[in-house]
Amino acid sequence: MIRNVLLTLKKILITFLAITGFLAILGGIFVWWMTIGVFSHQSFDTKKWNIPLTQELDSTCYRGGMAKDIRDNLLKQGESKQFVENLLGKPDHIQENEYSYVLGMCSGFGFDYDNLHIYFNKQDKIIYSKIRQH
Question: Burial, 30: exposed, middle or buried (Cβ in 10 Å; 0-12, 13-18, 19+)?
Fold first, then answer.
């Protein structure tokens, strides 16, 4: 009787530890994805940024690795729209006070594009920029 109870407790403990370990790994991956992820592994490279888009590249994260470096180190508050265009080229989408550059399909699911958004004030100076996963 005691042996059966101990075996049952052992199975419960092993199951609990396996589930806890799996959740810890899953949580670690989630934290990595939300804080560092695919947007932080490359320095900005003008040639790579301006590579002509092909059908093969279209479904990849062809600019995503450079996005964090661009946002954190190159796009400084107060820089002009002209500076941005000289650095990154013409934006893929333009709104009144916003430029948007497509980074590729970086989400990992391959069904939506991620973008680098740059926001300007009325004097066409950078206010801030962000990477937006859709």
Answer: exposed
